tRNA-dihydrouridine(20/20a) synthase (Noviherbaspirillum suwonense), 354 residues
Amino acid sequence: MRMESGRIAAATCRLKSKNIPVKSTNYRKRTLSVAPMMDWTDRHCRMFHRQITRHSWLYTEMVTTGALLYGDVARHLDFNGEEHPVALQLGGSEPDALAQSARLGQQWGYDEINLNCGCPSERVQKGAFGACLMAEPQLVADCVRAMRDAVDIDVTVKHRIGIDQQETYGFVRDFVGTVADAGCRTFIVHARNAILKGLSPKENREIPPLRYEVVYQLKREFPDLEIILNGGVTRVEEIDAHLQHVDGVMLGREAYHNPWLMADFDARYYGDQTGEPRTREQVLAAMLPYIRDELARHGGKGLKLNSITRHMLGLTMGLPGARRFRQMLSDAKLLAKGDPGLLIDALATLPAAA
């Protein structure tokens, strides 16, 4: 325990020396958010998404408690101040370890701590967390209570509507009720069951049927809780329909593959009429200083241009010339030059200005 405390203290000193705020801003309305996605929603992806939507909530990839308490804290928690509002998703099932990790997240400047109770992968199950935690609602409640005692930012839970053959509404209702009794006020609900054996994570996102009515029913039964729907949403018309029943919608892979879907979220869902929506060219131009700073910070070691540009391949989805845009951003010879201006050059190949 003393060694863990030393690591945390050292990490806190590092974040203070980097001028990272130790207290986050109090944000409102999780009307729209982008889901935590392993290997995708890293800090570069989130910075790119923030250029498209200023108000939607962004979530980190899941970070395990072990990675924070025994690993490189800065590598896992470092982010750019422009990403706010941004939430840290934790993976774990030990209340004390989660409390320490949540405290680190708050010190590092995150606006929310989210507990993963929805990932069905076997690797996560071996660590006794993720979707399998839904079978132990009292343990989840203990974890939430420990984290809430450790921080003064929101602690939220992301979960499924059931696991394996547990498809009754009563199962998820009792889970939410038990965890709510521990003080959790926000539940992000993936509207599919998680099949813990026999399906890959990808299949778990596609094969179990979507049952949105279960999420709607949760909101009816728990009107004072913030209920956010996740799973299978790809169009603004679907978002509009869901928002008639729940408090918010979380987008997953559609936001990644077709990020321009989010271009009018600020005006449409947050009432932000302060300026004209950015064009694609303006979004890419806004990323250039960030990319140059990141490449310079790493001094050409470890970080390559494609580590950032890979998140932008879907920006021109549906436009004439989109294929050429993707080809240029995937061209090894062009990327090897390390020139962020490649983004603007690639966009310029489209038949009309974007």
